[in-house]
Amino acid sequence: MTDRLPDQKQRNEILRTLCERYPEIQRGTLAKSLCGRSIEYLQIGEQKCNPVLFAGAFHGMEWITSLILFRFAEQLGRALQTGRRVSDVDIGAFLRRRGVVIVPCVNPDGVEISIHGSVSAGCYQELVYHAAKGNTDRWQANARGVDLNHNYNAGWEELHKLEQKSGICSANPTRYGGAYPESEPETQAMVKLCRARQFRHALAFHSQGEEIYWHYGDPMPEKAYLMAQVMATSSGYALSAPEGLAVGGGFKDWFLSEFHRPAFTIEVGLGENPLPIDDFISIYPKLEEMLILSAIM
User: Model confidence at 248, in pLDDT bands (50, 70, 90)?
Assistant: First the structure.
C-alpha cells in the first residue's frame, strides 16, 4: 500500500482495497477538484456524535501525508473487524461510540502535478508550466496556482498583503492565497464538510519539521493546549508557532476561528520536501499513538 507514490491511480487502488477488506470503512466523495478529480473521504465508526477530522495533502508535494492517513485508516478498520488493540488502545470499542472522518488528499490536482508534471493540470497546463518555470517537483498549489493553505477565510487579508510585499501576486507554486478567501473548489469542499459535520476537533497534516501548531487567535478553545501537549508527548514532536507567511489563511486557523474548537497542524517528518517515500517507514510508527489518542480525546 505504501511502496508507490500516491497519485490518483494509486489512491483509488488503496481506497478500493481498504473498503473491500474492511466493510466498516465507508467511502464517499466530497467534491471535484478544478481538474475534475474526486476529493474522497473515509468514515470509520459511529458518526452521530461529533467525529474527529483528519485531513492530508493540502499541498501537492506533501503527498506522504496521504500515505500516513491511509495506514491509519487501515489500522482502524482492522481494529473494528478483529478487536485488535492499536498502540495498546482498544480503539475499536471507542469507534463504536465515536468515529473519525479521513480526507487523505485535499489537493488531488496538486499531488498529480507534483508527481507527474504540468501535463496533469489539464486546461491549466500552460499556467502551471510557466508558474513553475518548467519544474513542478516542488509544486504545492492547486491547478490554478493557489496555495490552498493560504485560501481559508482566517486572517486572509493580512496574509494577502504579506504575499504581495513578498512579490507573490498571482499563480505560484506556493504561498499565493488566491483572488479572495475560499475561491477554490478544494477549499470550499472542506469548509462545507466541516459546517455539515460539526467535528469536535480537526488535524491537518503537512510536511516537514516534526512540529505541531495548535494556536491561532484568542481566546483559544478550552483544553486545546492540554491536547497539544498530549500529542507532542506521544509523538516526540515539538509544539511550535508559525511565523510570517505561514500565519493565517490556513485550514487550522479557519477551523479555530469558525468553530472555536481545537485544531492542529502536524508537520510530519524531517528533511526537504517532497520527503522520499522510504521515509514513511520511520514516520508512521512515531505518529500512531498520537493518531489514536487524537481520535479518542
Answer: confident
